[in-house]
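Known limitations

Structure tokens in this collection are predictions and should be treated as such. Users comparing against experimental data should check residue numbering before alignment. To illustrate the layout, the record for Iron-containing alcohol dehydrogenase is reproduced below. The input appears on top and the generated tokens appear beneath it.
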Amino acid sequence: MNSFSFQNQTNIVFGQGTVNQLASLVAPYGKTILLVYGGGSIKRSGLYDEVLAQLKSIDAKVVELSGVEPNPRLTSVNKGIELCRSEKVDLILAVGGGSVIDAAKAIAAGALYDGDVWDFLMHKAQIKDALPIGTILTLSATGSEMNGNAVISNWETKQKRAFGSQHVYPRFSILDPTLTYSVPRDQTVNGVVDIMSHVFEQYFTLTENAPLQERLCESVLLTVIENAEKALENPNDYDARANLMLCGTMALNGGLISVGTQNDWASHGIEHEVSAIYDIPHGSGLSILFPNWMKYVYKERIDRFTQFAERVWGIERGSKSDDELALAGIEATREFFNRIGAPATLAHYNIGRDNLDVMAREAVLFGPLGNFKKLQQEDVKQILELAL
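Generated tokens:
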């Protein structure tokens, strides 16, 4: 196990009816609130009216930024920054899933920065300060409600980039599992894949002698597997939705399940290049790419993959060789994704070979990708070819 420092400032308020605590959570930060949300589902569900009623009870001034995209665009972020500056916003309240929260984080950082917010995404500047953020989560997926990460797309340059900073951790996040009842099936599936993929990025590590972290990762994976199909069969199953929601938060909240280990993140880096060009759902891209990344790298540390097969998928070794057992675990992952309805190939989105070289080149723009196996441009291209 490696040395580490872990800190997380987010206040998680979890459970049915917790939106009723919004007024008291917002009040300490000021009266002018930027309300950030997506395509209107919060209005159809009635959540929008609940939020406004809570804010009205403390005489808050509400400024709205709606229409944040599933792969949040730089253009939306810049609109939010302009609103924060012109309206002298005290707090940004993100109501939605990870994309809305990610946009809010970029807005919070950009509002207090003299330059172009894209500088943070291109590693040209570091975030020194940010407006405070609160969130109401409506989709179990990214963990953005309890971490300092954000991913933003620049549609003009066809780039999708990420940043991370302690300054943009939400101050509070309201997690009411009932708010996920109305999430469409495909978004629930993508959320499940995203949660599992976050754990994969931390579980497949070259760091040794970290048994607690391994079991924490495995427990999150097992809980997701146990509850995913329950939630898909009965969207109003509170326990299944609650377990998925907590798994999403635990899977990526600053590294709690993987402290002291070296993470990978290559598959996310590759997916960002795919969705930067083709604008596909992030979870779908991960469901296509991750099993192919696994097949490409598993021999780097085959014991981790045999352990994965046995502990997560319950595959007995019997007479299987290490190779056979490892590949059986990878195939079980693919079969699970297939079973819940996640796509398996890039062809599902009519993606062919046209931009493979571009995506492979952009993936290693800042150097080799990943840590489990350092991927060069040609490695990335081969993984993409496996995914066709």
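For this record: The two ends are 37 Å apart (CA to CA). Residues 184-386 form a domain with the Dehydroquinate synthase-like, alpha domain fold (CATH 1.20.1090.10). Please report discrepancies through the issue tracker.
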